[in-house]
Design goal:
The chain is mainly α and 401 residues long. Among the domains are: 2-70 and 360-400, no CATH class; 153-291, no CATH class. Helix content is 87%, strand content 0%. The protein contains 21 helices and no strands. Helix 1 runs parallel beside helix 21 (375-400) and helix 6 (102-111) packs antiparallel against helix 18. The protein is rod-shaped and about 155 Å long.
Length: 401
C-alpha cells in the first residue's frame, strides 16, 4: 500500500508536468492540470503528516515530527493510565464479570471429553513430566525427602496414634486384630511344641524325668494354652479378651493424655528418624515413587484417564445443571477478579508501561505502524484524490466566474 500511495503521487506529478506543457492544445487539459496539481499537493501534505507521526520526513529534524518515538515514554504512561482507569477498576470488572456465566462455560469445557479431560490430563501430565525430567534427580529427591522428614519431625505422633486407636476401639475395628493375634499365638505355640517340651524336660528334676511326669506336664501346659486361646477366641466376654481390650483402651488414653507416654513415643520417633535404615528406606521409597510417577505421566491416557475423566465430566455436568453451584462459582470468580484488579491492577499496567519504555524508538515505531497497517497509506491515497477533486472544483469555479 505504501508503493501504491507513492506511485499515485508520482503519477499526479507526471500528469501535472505533461498537462502544463500541453495545456494550450485543448481547454480540457486545464481541468486535468488543476486536478493533478491539487492532488499532488494533497498527497504531499498527507505523506508529510503520516511520516511525521513515526519519523523525521526525509531525515530532517523538523519540529513536531517523529511524534511517536519522541514521546514513547509519555505514550506508555498514558496507555497504562487508560487501561487502569477504563478496564481494571473494580466497578468495571464486577460489571463485566456479572454478565458472564463463567461456571457454565467452565462446565461445558470440562464436560466435553475431547477438551476438558484430555487437556487437563495431558497438561498436568506434561507439566509434571517436564519438572521431573528437567530437575536433577538427586537434588529433587533431597528436597522431597527433606520436606517429608521435616514434616515427620514436626508431627506429634502420640496423640494421633491414640486418637486412631480410640476410634478403632469405639467402632469395634480392633476385634479382628485381637483375634488375629490370638490365632498367630496359637500357630506359634504349635510350631514350637518340640522346643517347649524340650525346655520343660531340661528344667524338670531327675524324679520327674525318671517317672515321665515331665512329658505329661509339658502336654498339660500345651493343652491348657490351646484351651485358653480357643476360649478367648470364641467367648466374647472372656476375661483375657476383656483384659486385652482394657489394655488397649488404657494405651489409647495414655497416648493422648499421658505426658510421659507422649515423650516416650516422641523419643522413639526421633530414634527411628535418626536410624540409617530409615534413611535407606526413604531413599528406596522416593526412587520407587519417582519411577512410578514418571511411568504414569508418560502414559497419561492409560494411568489417569478412567477416574480423572469421570470426575472431570461429573464436575462439568454439575456446573452446567446446578444453578446454585453456578451462583457460588460465579460469585467466587467475580470476587477473585475484582480482588486481582484492586490489588494488582497497578502492577499489571506498570508492566505494560515499563515494557513499552524498554523498547527502543525503532521498535515502538515499527509495532505501532504495523498495527495501524494499510489505513495509513489509505490516508495518503485519499488525500491525493480529495485534494485533486478540491482543485478541480476550484478550477471550475474560476473558469465559471
Amino acid at each position: 500500500m505504501r508503493v501504491v500511495a507513492t506511485s499515485l503521487l508520482l503519477a499526479m506529478a507526471v500528469i501535472y508536468a505533461v498537462t502544463r506543457h500541453y495545456e494550450g492544445l485543448h481547454p480540457a487539459l486545464g481541468f486535468v492540470r488543476a486536478f493533478a496539481e491539487a492532488a499532488m499537493v494533497g498527497g504531499l501534505a498527507d505523506w508529510f503528516a503520516v511520516t511525521a507521526l513515526f519519523r523525521h520526513p526525509l531525515g530532517l529534524p523538523i519540529p513536531h515530527t517523529a511524534i511517536i518515538p519522541e514521546n514513547k515514554d509519555r505514550i506508555a504512561d498514558t496507555m497504562a493510565a487508560f487501561l487502569q482507569n477504563n478496564f481494571l477498576t473494580p466497578a468495571v470488572v464486577a460489571r463485566r464479570m456479572g454478565a458472564v456465566n463463567a461456571a457454565a462455560a467452565l462446565g461445558g469445557f470440562l464436560a466435553d471429553p475431547r477438551t476438558g479431560e484430555s487437556r487437563l490430563r495431558d497438561g498436568a501430565a506434561g507439566l509434571v513430566a517436564d519438572v521431573l525430567e528437567s530437575l536433577d534427580p538427586e537434588e529433587l529427591g533431597g528436597l522431597a525427602k527433606g520436606a517429608l522428614r521435616t514434616q515427620l519431625e514436626k508431627l506429634e505422633l502420640s496423640p494421633l496414634l491414640g486418637q486412631l486407636l480410640g476410634a478403632a476401639i469405639a467402632d469395634g475395628r480392633h476385634m479382628p486384630v485381637i483375634e488375629g493375634l490370638i490365632r498367630k499365638t496359637a500357630e506359634t505355640i504349635e510350631a514350637n511344641e518340640a522346643l517347649i517340651q524340650s525346655t520343660i524336660h531340661e528344667r524338670a528334676n531327675t524324679i520327674l524325668r525318671w517317672t515321665g511326669l515331665d512329658e505329661k506336664l509339658a502336654n498339660a501346659i500345651l493343652d491348657g494354652l490351646y484351651k485358653l486361646l480357643a476360649e478367648t477366641l470364641v467367648v466374647p466376654d472372656h476375661p483375657l479378651r476383656r483384659k486385652i481390650e482394657d489394655g488397649l483402651e488404657t494405651l489409647a488414653h495414655d497416648l493422648v493424655h499421658d505426658t510421659e507416654m507422649r515423650a516416650r513415643v516422641e523419643r522413639l520417633k526421633q530414634e527411628v528418624l535418626a536410624n540409617p535404615a530409615f534413611a535407606r528406606w526413604l531413599d528406596a521409597l522416593w526412587e520407587r515413587g519417582r519411577i512410578k510417577l514418571l511411568q504414569m505421566v508418560r502414559n497419561p491416557g492409560g494411568a489417569l484417564s478412567g477416574q480423572l475423566g469421570a470426575s472431570v465430566a461429573e464436575l462439568g455436568n454439575a456446573l452446567q445443571r446446578d444453578v446454585r453451584l453456578q451462583r457460588v462459582v460465579n460469585r467466587f470468580a467475580r470476587r477473585t477478579m475484582v480482588g486481582v484488579s484492586t490489588r494488582y491492577g497497578a502492577q499489571i499496567v506498570r508492566l505494560v508501561s515499563e515494557t513499552v519504555k524498554r523498547w527502543d524508538a525503532r521498535t515502538v515505531t515499527d509495532r505501532i505502524e504495523g498495527a495501524v497497517g494499510r489505513d495509513l497509506q489509505f490516508i495518503r491515497i485519499n488525500g491525493t484524490l480529495v485534494g485533486g477533486l478540491v482543485g478541480l472544483v476550484l478550477h471550475v469555479l474560476d473558469v465559471a466566474l
